[in-house]
Design goal:
The chain is of the alpha+beta class and 96 residues long. The protein is built from 2 helices and 7 strands; from the N terminus they run E-H-E-E-E-H-E-E-E. Strands 1, 2, 3, 4, 5, 6 and 7 form a 7-stranded antiparallel beta sheet that branches. A hairpin with a 4-residue loop joins strand 6 and strand 7.
């Protein structure tokens, strides 16, 4: 499971962010099947992060969240060895 943390816009719910990603996905990929689910949100200072969990069977397409976040100008990071290293240079462990 690929676990992505993506910066939330002010007052944005996970559902709103997921709809934004899905709209981008439909406009920017030719893939027919793609799934993801909600994980535990995280706050890091003044930045709130939504969590998106993507099954590994999507292969390289799990990286689409990074592409979307970059295009949207959002801070993002992927969980790796129990640590999320964000594009801002910050890092955290989701359990903390």
């Amino acid at each position: 499971m690929a676990v992505w943390y993506i910066e939330a816009h002010p007052h944005e719910t996970w559902k709103q962010a997921s709809r934004s990603f899905w709209t981008w996905f439909q406009q920017n990929t030719a893939l027919q099947n793609y799934g993801f689910s909600e994980g535990d949100a995280h706050a890091l200072g003044s930045v709130n992060l939504h969590c998106f969990c993507v099954p590994d069977h999507h292969g390289a397409a799990v990286g689409l969240f990074e592409d979307w976040a970059k295009e949207q100008g959002r801070v993002f990071g992927r969980l790796d060895d129990s640590v999320v290293r964000l594009s801002s240079g910050d890092s955290f462990s989701p359990s903390s």
